[in-house]
């Protein structure tokens, strides 16, 4: 779920919460101003409705939050899997580069020996021709 999706859910939740709160407040004022006793059915209905609306709203928010958490965890697991794969490829390439470097150093050493041997051979030939 994207940031925009999370913001959309949050805005919808706030809108629902605002509407429900207005309804509940209107009902509360209506019941409080009624000439009934504290144990009247209207008073009981007010309490149950308020709890029910708040519970439904909380359940909806918790459901959206749980789904968002699942999606974020899924994204994190995919990201960590990609990072692990990339690290394995990098380690493999690093090993190959170290092998190439070792071989290059070995060739360099061998060529230096050949160069020195050729120099001695040419010096020997030159001495024989002059001598």
From TrEMBL:
InterPro entries tied to this protein: TEX12 (IPR029193)
Source domain of life: Eukaryota
Cross-referenced Pfam families: TEX12
Name the record gives this protein: Uncharacterized protein
